[in-house]
């Protein structure tokens, strides 16, 4: 397979050319990504959330200067995801561990992203730490038409007087270059207390996700759905395999099912975060059957990847090779404890 990339200065969408048995076709190509931004907090104290550590007087000594450095690092990464193939930053990127809308606005005002003219879909979630999920989109490529935050209702020991406040799941439906796409951005409950003890919380999160997906399928069995996020579970864990019922072979898919391109990566030992010298692939992008069909008259899945450039890995010491996180007993100058993930969607270009 040969690729030829063209970069005309006056065109917003970039194209890729493939040669198949003497037949050459041009395709539009867009990147869809997800990135856990590892506690992107501003430096002001929010009196209603537990953000005291991320203030100048707090434990982390989170100053304006550190905040600006963190923003610059996050913007650099986002601007480069898929750029070598598409010539631009992602058309859509889901993000997690962001404190509020302000940090997103500050992020998008960084020089690597400013000219891309991103829009924001964000709702404040009830998470006690004040961290949310959001969707960023290039306005020239994607137009939101509906959005909704779905509360994840969790209770300690099933006692409804003991609510566990966690992140919402964000659904955004819109038009990507004129085609309807449904995006769900997730940040499922952590493994705090241990994987087994915390597992029921992620099962509940998966059930809510399945409910959202089934609602979309009830309206349109051929809906193009992308559910993405930090699931705090691997592709083979029960929340993903048993509740979402994901498949890792496109040929096995039936209508209204889900394909997880990250499962094969995980089985090959690839990951997006490391813990005790073992890799996990918690950051996943899962797609509906319709996006896997090999009919490129409309946008379809092409390939998936983990964005793990050398500068995103810890260069030395005990954690050499791990994601180069931004904070370990002080600001490190690093990025995040997670690598971003991405997929490419391609569509045949109609000749003029």
Can you lay out the helices and strands and say which pair or pack?
Layout: E1 3-6, E2 15-20, E3 23-40, H1 64-80, H2 83-86, E4 92-98, H3 101-108, H4 111-114, E5 118-122, E6 132-138, E7 142-150, E8 154-155, E9 163-164, E10 169-176, E11 179-187, H5 195-219, E12 225-230, H6 238-243, E13 246-247, E14 258-259, H7 262-267, E15 273-275, E16 278-280, E17 283-288, E18 300-306, E19 341-348
Parallel strand pairs: 3-4, 11-12, 13-14
Antiparallel strand pairs: 1-2, 2-3, 3-19, 4-6, 5-6, 7-10, 8-9, 10-11, 12-17, 14-17, 15-16, 18-19
For the record, the count of structural domains works out to 1
* Number of helical segments with 4 or more residues: 7
Instruction: Note the beta-strand portion.
Output: 25-35%
Main β-sheet, in a few words? 8 strands, mixed
| SSE arrangement, N to C | EEEHHEHHEEEEEEEHEHEEHEEEEE
What does this structure look like?
With 352 residues, the protein is of the alpha+beta class. The protein has seven helices and 19 strands. It has a single domain, classed as Endonuclease/exonuclease/phosphatase (Deoxyribonuclease I, Chain A, 4-Layer Sandwich), CATH 3.60.10.10. It has helices at 64-80, 83-86, 101-108, 111-114, 195-219, 238-243, 262-267, and strands at residues 3-6, 15-20, 23-40, 92-98, 118-122, 132-138, 142-150, 154-155, 163-164, 169-176, 179-187, 225-230, 246-247, 258-259, 273-275, 278-280, 283-288, 300-306, 341-348. Strand 11 (179-187), helix 5 and strand 12 (225-230) form a beta-alpha-beta unit. Helix 1 (64-80) crosses helix 3 (101-108). The longest helix has 25 residues, at 195-219. The protein is globular, with a radius of gyration of 20 Å.
């Amino acid at each position: 397979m040969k690729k030829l990339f063209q970069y005309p200065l006056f065109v917003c969408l970039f194209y890729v050319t493939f040669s198949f048995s003497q037949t050459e076709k041009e395709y539009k190509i867009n990147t869809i990504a997800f990135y856990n931004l590892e506690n992107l907090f501003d430096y002001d104290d929010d009196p209603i959330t537990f953000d005291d550590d991320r203030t100048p007087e707090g434990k982390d000594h989170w100053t304006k200067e550190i905040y600006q450095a963190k923003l610059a690092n996050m913007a650099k990464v986002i601007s480069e995801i898929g750029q070598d193939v598409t010539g631009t930053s992602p058309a859509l990127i889901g993000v997690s561990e962001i404190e509020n809308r302000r940090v997103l606005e500050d992020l998008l005002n960084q020089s690597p992203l400013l000219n891309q003219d991103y829009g924001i879909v964000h709702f404040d979630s009830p998470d006690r730490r004040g961290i949310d999920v959001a969707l960023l989109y290039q306005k020239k490529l994607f137009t939101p038409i509906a959005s909704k935050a779905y509360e994840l209702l969790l209770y300690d020991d099933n006692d409804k007087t003991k609510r566990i406040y966690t992140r919402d799941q964000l659904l955004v439906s819109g038009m990507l270059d004129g085609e309807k796409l449904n995006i769900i951005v997730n940040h499922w409950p952590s493994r705090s207390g241990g994987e087994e003890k915390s597992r029921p919380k992620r099962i509940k999160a998966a059930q809510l996700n399945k409910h959202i997906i089934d609602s979309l399928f009830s309206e349109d069995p051929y809906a193009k759905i992308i559910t993405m996020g930090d699931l705090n579970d691997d592709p083979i864990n029960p929340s993903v395999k048993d509740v979402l019922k994901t498949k890792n072979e496109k040929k096995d898919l039936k209508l209204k099912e889900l394909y997880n391109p990250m499962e094969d990566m995980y089985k090959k030992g690839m990951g997006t975060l490391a813990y005790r010298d073992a890799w996990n692939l918690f950051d996943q992008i899962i797609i509906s059957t319709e996006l896997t069909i090999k009919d490129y008259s409309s946008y379809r899945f092409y390939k998936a990847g983990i964005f793990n450039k050398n500068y995103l890995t810890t260069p030395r010491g005990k954690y050499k090779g791990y994601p180069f996180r931004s904070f370990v007993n002080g600001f490190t100058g690093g990025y995040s404890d997670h690598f971003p993930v991405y997929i490419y969607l391609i569509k045949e270009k109609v000749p003029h």
